[in-house]
Write a structure and sequence with these properties.
The chain is of the alpha+beta class. The protein has helices at 2-31, 181-184, 202-232, 242-270, 278-297, 309-338, 342-378, and strands at residues 43-46, 53-59, 64-72, 78-84, 94-100, 106-112, 132-140, 143-151, 158-166, 169-170, 173-174, 186-190, 196-198. It is built from 7 helices and 13 strands. The chain starts with a helix and ends in a 14-residue tail after the last helix.
Length: 392
């Protein structure tokens, strides 16, 4: 027991030490940075995303701060730094945007973001909700630097800060950025202690990742596997009726997981007022509707000997292939929206290619089995009658 307590205390000590070392390293990496006008700041912090850093000097006598924000970018791109007085994200952010003008000079706008449905015409130089006494920006050495002197909102030293970097420009102004780290670029900063605490914004990205994983597994993996079971395993007479149970279990599991992912997608959409990925959403709605009809169609399946069974089979197979196609297409659209590391998209593409290769081999093998069976049955006096469920 005592040994366990000693080990626990050592682990806690190491964790605390690691935290302090990490914070010290974060400060040390930005301390070495210098500025063109030899400006000096009392504090700095290397921000956790996009290679950005923030330098500041807080003046408690009048609750103002001199700020320098720096982020790497190409000369034709843009960077932004903002304070959000009421939240941790983009909506409501009071922003400083540095970008190249048509003549090549660096332009600095102060812009308030009041909606997610932002248009290029909304990006303009305007007053913020707090006073800005001085502002300028420069570009050099592969970095944009934004300088500002501002009054802290509500005289509070604890501020929510957001930043961005992108190369997307439309109508001469910054417009749009990637997902991934760009969506995580926000922290809560204490100007007195210099402490930077995660603003918890990654919970939304985490739910997006869960949404993507659920849908990739359901519509993109289980559904094709279930279809392959129905198409190829049923050819072997010894597999009847086991293949039916396997097929139903696989497809029903895919449906339940897919509906869970679909519901999470609806929740994420309701939280993103003004942001709509129309094609991704429309395909998802069609996919859910068709899959639901497909599930309930099982309740109306005629017996194998029924004269309408052939028509039900045609409907069931056609609907199934349509669902699989829509699912795979929408998964790739989801990759484009979420923009994860390329290895994930490549891994899924590799899975689909592998399944397609297996399906091709099985197609050749099962057709060989069916043709040999037909050949043998044709030599028998009464022949052999294939049911609709045994013919590919």
């Amino acid at each position: 027991m005592k040994q366990g307590m000693v080990i626990l205390c050592l682990l806690l000590s190491l964790m605390v030490q690691h935290h302090h070392q990490g914070a010290a390293a974060q400060r040390q990496s930005c301390v070495a940075e210098s500025f063109s006008g030899n400006e000096l700041y009392s504090s700095c912090n290397s921000l956790p995303y996009l290679g950005a850093s923030l330098h500041w000097t807080y003046h408690p006598s009048n609750a103002t701060a001199d700020v320098a924000f720096r982020a790497p970018q190409t000369a034709d791109g843009w960077v932004a730094w903002a304070i959000n007085p009421n939240a941790s994200g983009m909506l409501g952010a009071q922003s400083f945007l540095a970008f190249p003008a048509s003549n090549g000079a660096v332009t600095l706008f102060t812009t308030a973001f009041s909606t997610y449905a932002l248009q290029p015409s909304d990006v303009k130089d305007e007053n913020l909700t707090f006073a800005v006494y001085d502002k300028r920006a420069e570009y050099g050495g592969g970095y944009y630097t934004i300088y500002a002197t501002l009054a802290l909102p509500s005289n509070s030293t604890r501020v929510n800060t957001v930043w961005q970097a992108s190369t997307q420009i439309q109508d001469g102004v910054p417009y749009g950025h990637a997902a991934g780290d760009n969506e995580l670029s926000k922290t809560s900063l204490d100007l007195l202690s210099g402490e930077v605490v995660s603003a918890g914004g990654n919970s939304r990205l985490h739910r997006k990742n869960i949404h993507g994983v659920l849908n990739a597994i359901s519509w993109g993996i289980l559904m094709p596997i279930g279809a392959m079971i129905a198409r190829y395993v049923k050819v072997f007479e010894s597999a009847d009726p086991a293949w039916t149970y396997l097929h139903v279990a696989c497809q029903f599991s895919a449906y339940v997981i897919g509906v869970t992912g679909w519901g999470l997608g609806l929740k994420l959409g309701s939280e993103s007022v003004g942001i709509t990925y129309h094609k991704h959403r429309d395909i998802a709605v069609a996919l859910f509707s068709l899959a639901t009809v497909q599930v309930f169609a099982l309740l109306m399946r005629p017996n194998k000997e029924h004269k309408y069974r052939v028509y039900w089979n045609v409907y069931h197979h056609s609907m199934g292939y349509c669902i699989i196609t829509l699912g795979v297409v929408n998964i790739f659209k989801g990759f484009d929206i979420l923009a994860p590391a390329k290895k994930w998209k490549h891994a899924y593409a590799g899975s689909i290619v592998t399944l397609a290769g297996i399906a091709l081999v099985l197609e050749l093998l099962t057709w060989g089995v069916v043709l040999r069976r037909r050949s043998r049955s044709s030599k028998k006096p009464n022949g052999y009658v294939f049911s609709q469920d045994q013919v590919l």
